[in-house]
Amino acid sequence: MTLTVDTDPLETSGSAKPGPPAGDRFARIKEHRWHYLFVAPMVILLALFTLWPIVASWAYGFYEWDGYGPLEHFIGLDNYREAAADPSFWQAFGNTFWFSFASLFIQAPLALLFALILNNPRLFARNVYRVLLFIPVVSTTAVVGLVFSVLLDTNRGPINVVLTTLGLEPVNFLGDSSTALATVIAVETWRGLGITMIYWLAALQTIPGELYEAAKIDGAGRWRTFGSITLPLLAPFAIIIMLLTFITSFNAFDIVQTMTAGGPNGASDIVQTYIYRYAFAPTQFIPRFGFASAAALLFGLVVMVLTFVQVLLVRQARRKAAGVSQTTDQEATS
Question: Which residue ranges traverse the bilayer (predicted)?
């Protein structure tokens, strides 16, 4: 008796199966029509308040437009040339990346240190400490900025009152060009420390406790355990955490606008406050929505290029790590 099995030539060749007929697709859409109806408000809001402003800003950048009336005065690439030639734009651009530098090389390592300490199950009241470190994250950024503006006030701020009491000169934290940017970065680093710590805590809790117990039995010390177990197992998560921290660092508009508004003389200016002044500060000059849109698009393009380079570097690092792991496995089997 011969058993024959009909096989689909598309399956055996490894090709994808053809999609369902058009009638079936429409029937499926009709079946899930209520799902699409519930999702529709979110899609409409996303299109109106996210997608459309992005597309519109691309068009505004080619016009000399004050935000009122129709788009009539087409000037081509003049706004982009003006922004690219403005030293204040590049100063704000550099200050923006100082926030990113502080997030990656100060905030992330500090958050990892706190996460390592608070991940210890023998630490008394560790959940209380976690909450205390996370409270600034859920606090309104504008409120945080106002509170620190009062604390750091040159004349009546509590910090300068203490310095004066100790016989020291008061420090103009927010009014001096040499200290304004560093002060705002320090406040923003403190405010965002909690969320990065939560990321590290989540990553640390994926490491099996049996590995630490085995290392302890083998006589490995804390630094040896950290270097041989914790760091290698955190590496895949570290890439994601660093990327999230890098992206979040560009959202410093609230804290800068509240504490210094980009001053003094642009010392703490970032691209967002630079754009805000040109688009929404008519008390200083006529609003220039076209120029602000061009500056925003120029900054976005630079960030996209840097992100693309970062993705390429991450992929290359992963390929090298996979190659080393494969070589190690082959040597072990041989």
Answer: 34-60, 97-119, 131-152, 180-202, 223-247, 289-313
